[in-house]
Amino acid sequence: FMVGDVKQSIYRFRLARPEIFMEKYKTYAPDGEREQRIDLHKNFRSRREVLQSVNYFFRKLMGEDLGGIAYDEAAALYAGAQFPETEEGQETEILLVEKDGKTWEMEETEQNDRELEALAIAQRILKLVGNQQILDKETGALRPAEFGDIAVLLRTATGWAETFSEVFASKGIPSYTASRTGYFSAREVVTVLNILRVCDNPLQDLPLTGVLYSPVVGCTSQELALIREKNEKELLFSSVLRYHEENREEQSPEKRVLWEKLDRFLSFLEETRELCTYTPVHQVILQILERTGYGNYARAMPDGEQRSANLQMLV
């Protein structure tokens, strides 16, 4: 059997060619005796109103000359799931932002198109939360919408996700982004991933430097220089072990404080590396956050709700 989706083929991922799919599509009939085409056109994620709007636009836009498929009744999406009706009804909205108009309550500051769009969506979200009734998946009953019920889909996350997050934060809307660059470059995510990298292989200088300099260990730039002062060419982990061994009896306050930091870190590293051998990675992350207190630290930082959500997403 063959499986395909011409609506995905139009993006040309991995050299996809829609005409190949359409050739196979037209070769077989839905009621064939020996070979049969089975059309999977039901959608189980969206309400009927959403699908009707999508079908309306794509019937106007997509044809065999654009996308390689005629968006007819056979290509349309149909609701496969039932959702309860609400008093407000469900309608698809198009929000238009007039840059020089007064349609939205824009601040008296210069804002680019991305910020204006993010602001319009933020204002709509604030009106929905607490007022719009949605279906609770766990209870099966209707309840007021919460921030966590809302997703914003962007054509591209690059450059946009960061802007939306900043605008949302300015309006008191907690959010996290699933963009590859924005999410994985967040300080709290980088710190936890560096800990995992060091647990996997402590001989990696860059991740180890990040962990030592992070709040998890708390080394200063001067302390890192002290660790490396005897041999700058050796691996950083070797320098850490050497400093820890040579300064075990050190009494000077400066070096004693650094030794204690490294002593706690090496004990933590040994225990966590042993834990990794028989524990699923998500449980290892939870143990790291609990043992180091880094989860609480992230919540106490500016944009703490965002950072906490990032760590929860990592788990």
Automatic annotation (TrEMBL):
* GO biological process assignments: recombinational repair
Enzyme Commission number, as recorded: 5.6.2.4
Keyword Transmembrane: yes or no?
Answer: no
**Under the cellular component aspect of Gene Ontology, which terms does the record hold?**
cytosol; DNA helicase complex
Q: Which UniProt keywords apply?
A: ATP-binding, Helicase, Hydrolase, Isomerase, Nucleotide-binding
Say if the entry is tagged with keyword Nucleotide-binding: yes
Q: One of this protein's Pfam families, by short name?
A: UvrD-helicase
Reactions listed under catalytic activity: Couples ATP hydrolysis with the unwinding of duplex DNA by translocating in the 3'-5' direction; ATP + H2O = ADP + phosphate + H(+)
Q: Name one GO molecular function term.
A: ATP binding
Q: Which InterPro entries match?
A: DNA_helicase_UvrD-like_C, DNA_helicase_UvrD/REP, P-loop_NTPase, UvrD-like_ATP-bd
Boundaries of every UvrD-like helicase C-terminal domain copy = 74-315
Which protein is depicted?
Answer: DNA 3'-5' helicase
